[in-house]
Amino acid sequence: MAENLNNQTRQEQLQLLNSALDSGHLIPVRNLLEELHSADIAHLLESTPPRVRNVIWQLLDKEREGDVLQHLNDEIRQNFIENMQPQELANALADLDTDDVVDILGDLSNNVSNQVLRLLDEQNRALIEHALTYPEDTAGGLMNIDTIMIRPRVSVEVVLRYLRIRGSMPPNTDHLYVVNSRDVLIGSVPISSILTCDPETSITQIVDEEMFTIPVDMPDTEVAQIFERHDLVSAPVLDEEGRLLGRITIDDVVDVIREEADHSLLSMAGLDELEDTFGPVLVTARKRAIWLGINLLTVILAALVIGLFESTIGKVTLLAVLLPIVPSMGGIAGTQTLTLVIRGMSLGHISDGNQSYLLKKELAVSIINGVLWALVIASLVYAFAYYKGTDINHLHLAITIGGAMLFNLVTGVLSGASIPLILKKLNIDPAIAGGVVLTTVTDVAGFFALLGLATYFFG
């Protein structure tokens, strides 16, 4: 099967698909689906509205449903599974790797999951049930149990004979794992060594006992960092006693990295990383309403601060023009630091040992930028007030805006550095809550500093 259709881009595929569906001719759609890789079909499904999506799914060969399901966004996949009978789903999952089956079944209710498990063959059922006992976001939930294990005292010829009898190897198999009689990992042997060594060579002569191993309870984000740092293709997963349980391969790690990136990006805007881009209007509106409500509360809080200085604004109407500047600059400076710190935390760069240095460094940065931009805005406001010929003290107005700018830039940067650290200690995801807290702090501090100084000078 060709991996693409005449090297067409995804945009061209979407155009062809939409044109065929609009005309009511489904044969070109079926032909397109037959030529595409399962991952590309999943992309098409994610790029179309639900009505079109359902038509495409009905035209898809039953034999390919499982392959497509494993590539789909969780929310879209769940919608398709809800309309499938347990036997149909079991048939779709029959040829998938155990880790992919576990990913799919792990998102289902226990009732549906158990129904599907009962329909799988006994050997696969036992493996999958065991894998489902591990949390989804750990190495145990990520690993593939289908792993080739060999004994240390056999020869390369015996291993080759075993591989020929087996007929195929699990995807992304670059090493065979050497274990003892209790399945305790001894080391690994590269496939290249098996293919190039003398058949009479003993495995003990070529086994590599130095390797990266993954504890079964390690968080999947840490697994991804290990793969990234050491350029791994696969790594064995061990229990507390050193027994080999399975292996993690690079394709699963790529999924973790992508999910983590989506989570970090979308959470800062209050969006669910699993949200369907073309999902139903009411469902999407309900999900976003909560975040909008929280932001409304923060805006109301900032408005209350402004209300405290109503008389000052009445005396110095130019303040109404300057009000958005200070909170905005503080928010931008804080967001820069917040993003940097959250990224550093996700990569494991920030710990208790270097937090104080980070805060001192960010304080120095904020003071330098604060002084710079305070002087710039103070000069501009002074020149503007002088040009307009206002009857207020131009120097006092410049000091007011400059002082507020310096204060809020320092506040924003220090808040951006400290808020993620505090939220993490409270077991709150900084990517989700950090932006809201920072916006509230910079808005309130900015308005209070500007209007407070204005009240002092012009009271």
Beta-sheet strand percentage? 5-15%
Helix and strand run: HHHHHHHHHHHEHEEHHEHEEHHHHHHHH
The number of distinct structural domains comes to: 3
Q: Briefly, what CATH class of the largest domain?
A: Mainly Alpha
> Please, what is the average pLDDT?
88
Number of helices: 23
CATH architecture term of the largest domain:
Orthogonal Bundle
Which topology of the largest domain does CATH recognise?
Answer: Tetracycline Repressor, domain 2
Class from helix and strand fractions: mainly alpha
Main location: membrane
Organism: Kangiella spongicola
Function: Acts as a magnesium transporter.
Subunit structure: Homodimer.
Task: Please explain how this structure is put together.
By secondary structure, this protein is mainly alpha-helical. The chain folds into 3 domains: 128 residues, MgtE N-terminal fold, CATH 1.25.60.10; 119 residues, Roll (CBS-domain), CATH 3.10.580; 178 residues, Tetracycline Repressor, domain 2 (Orthogonal Bundle), CATH 1.10.357.20. Helix content is 66%, strand content 6%. It has a 3-stranded mixed β-sheet. Helix 17 packs parallel to helix 23. The longest helix has 34 residues. The chain is elongated. The N terminus is likely disordered.
Short synopsis of the structure:
The protein has 459 residues and is mostly helical.
List the helices and strands and how they pair.
Elements: H1 10-23, H2 27-35, H3 38-46, H4 50-59, H5 65-69, H6 74-82, H7 86-93, H8 98-106, H9 110-119, H10 122-131, H11 139-142, E1 149-150, H12 156-166, E2 175-179, E3 185-190, H13 191-196, H14 203-206, E4 214-215, H15 220-230, E5 234-238, E6 244-249, H16 250-267, H17 281-308, H18 310-315, H19 318-322, H20 325-346, H21 355-388, H22 394-425, H23 430-458
Parallel strand pairs: 1-2, 4-5
Antiparallel strand pairs: 2-3, 5-6
Helix pairs in contact: 1-2, 7-9, 8-10, 15-16, 17-23, 20-22, 20-23, 21-22, 22-23
